[in-house]
Amino acid sequence: MKNTDVVIDCLQYNNWDRALFQATQDSGVHSVHVTVSYWENMQETLLNISRWHRQFENHSDLIMQVRTAADVIEAKASNRLGIVFGFQNCSPLNDDLGMVRILHELGVRFMQLSYNNQSSLATGCYEKNDPGITRFGEQVIREMNRVGMVIDMSHSAEQSTLEAIALSSRPIAITHANPVFFHPALRNKSTAVLQALASSGGMLGLSLYPFHLKNGSDCSLEQYCEMVADTVEVMGIDQVGIGSDLCQNWGYETLEWMRSGRWTFDADHGEGSVDNLNWPEQPSWFRNSQDMKNIAQGLKQQGFSIEDIAKVMGNNWLAFFLNSFESG
User: Fold this and answer.
1) Where are the domains of the chain?
2) Is it true that domain 36-42+91-324 has CATH number 3.30.930.10?
3) CA dihedral in degrees (106, 107, 113, 114; nearest 10)?
4) Global pTM value
5) How far is CA 4 from the centre of its chain?
6) Quick one: angle between helices 158-167 and 191-199, nearest 10?
7) Using CB atoms within 10 A of its CB, is residue 57 exposed (0-12), middle (13-18) or buried (19+)?
8) Percent residues over pLDDT 70 in the chain
9) pLDDT digits (tens, 9 = 90+) for 160-198
10) Which of 258, 306, 327, 307 is nearest to 101 (CA)?
11) CA atoms lying within 13 Å on the CB side of residue 176
12) Would the pLDDT of 250 be above 80?
């Protein structure tokens, strides 16, 4: 690895503690995009951010907040793990456009416009109908572009995603999903979306969550890396990275919170079996961040050059951050 190379995982949702910070930093990962809001309202989200502030104070030798691309470089140079804040839903906005700037000032750099369901901005991928981006959604996209907050359509439906790409004056991201040609999950993305994303300069973070993988937990490293190669054929080498969707240190109740929030009294099992009351088991070759090196090795076996492996493992995300996190 060159001194200028970085390793970035553009989505993890963990119950972080010092041991996990240390293990992730030891793994050679330099920055992680973390989820600070799913269904939380603004007050609850601010409490989550406040808890992160205490983490930064208590573990300042291990972690630091990332607000700019330069912060990722600083994190690597200081042997710390860079933490990027992101939302997997737009719930904290509370229908108030002014919250976009405030949240950006607090360090939020990614926000999904919807999480599986219809939101006030866009349609989620589990809805039967997809009318696209709402009037409020158009305003939020414009404001996110202005302040430097990345539009993330990982859990959004097809038409909404295509419209977000077209409406946004900056490239958008799908931080954690795979191509539908690899596995036909509702959360995975069509070739039309991948092509539109790539042509606009956007980024796709390829997921390692078992429900997004061919053969689920039994997906092989070779199959995954073949999928990376096929995706690069569609999108180009500069538009593909990793967004593992790794979830660690949680109980089942947190999985139900992710899926169901407060919008239903019933358990929404989404892509999982109604009989499975546990987190899906990770593939044996990707249990945690320490296994990122396995992906790099698998890409080498697929014939990727050292330079292209470095792009997929983090350099592409760093270039995207450079053009995305500053005000326009």
Assistant:
1) 36-42+91-324
2) no
3) -80
4) 0.96
5) 23
6) 10
7) exposed
8) 97
9) 999 999 999 999 999 999 999 999 999 999 999 999 999
10) 327
11) 29
12) yes
